[in-house]
Structure formats: C-alpha cells, structure tokens
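Supplementary Methods, section 5.1.

A reviewer requested that the exact input to the structure prediction be made available. We therefore reproduce it here, unchanged from the version used in the analyses.
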Amino acid sequence: MQLRPFVLPALLLALVGCSSEQTQRPTAAVTFEEPPQASTLMHELHGSLIGVPVNSEVELALLEVNRRDQPDRLLSNVKLQGRGTELPFILKFNAEKFPKGRDVELRGRVTRSGQLIMRLPAVEVGSSASQSLGPLHLVPAP
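The structure derived from this sequence is encoded token-by-token as follows.
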C-alpha cells in the first residue's frame, strides 16, 4: 500500500491545526524592578534649561560635594536630549538619603558628539524638599 495519497491530506490537516487561533490565557506581567518600599520617600527638583543646542546630550546630577568643592557622592541623575528650545527637566531623588549638614549641588553638562560644549553652573540645593528651580541658564564650557 502506498502512502503517497495520504501525505498531502495529512500535511494540510497539520497546517490547519497549527494555524487555527487558540484562546490564550492571560499571563501575569513579569517585572524585574523592585517596587518602591513604603519607607522610600521620593522628592524631585524641576525646572527648565535655557540655551540647550539641538542634537546635544544633557546630563544633570544631584551631588553631595566636599569642602574642596569636589563631588563625594551621586544622589541622582537624569539624561536628556537637546531640542534647541527651553528644555524642561524633573530630577527625582530619595529624600531619606539626602545628607544633612552637607553641601548638595545640582550640576549639569552638555555634550555633542562626546565633546563638552556647555555646562550648568552649580546650583546649591539646601533641603530635601521637592522644589522648583525655575529657568536655569547654561554657559559655554571652558
């Protein structure tokens, strides 16, 4: 007995079985981030940067600085893309990790093609409260 006449119908049945739409069970979303703990108190600095060139990269950093004006610890940072217009920013940080009795500054740098072109003069941040810094002006990098 030859199997050749049965091959084509069997192949078609297999294809139809594979292509039929099956009901999918809902699956739980998998997340790899830890949810914020109830004790974590997030605050934010917000404002806007004036003079950011188009196609540039901006990095803002909230830093604890020492008496020699050198960064000791990074508290938070954010990276943004320049659009050639006023660039709004929001920098979130953990208020519980904000050092008491130490100097904290917001600093920024603007790069294009990996080269420093502008900077944000240091802005002193005196408390861990959320606050608006308003418009901040960038200056050419030395």
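Residues 20-36 have pLDDT under 50 and may be disordered. These observations are discussed further in the main text.
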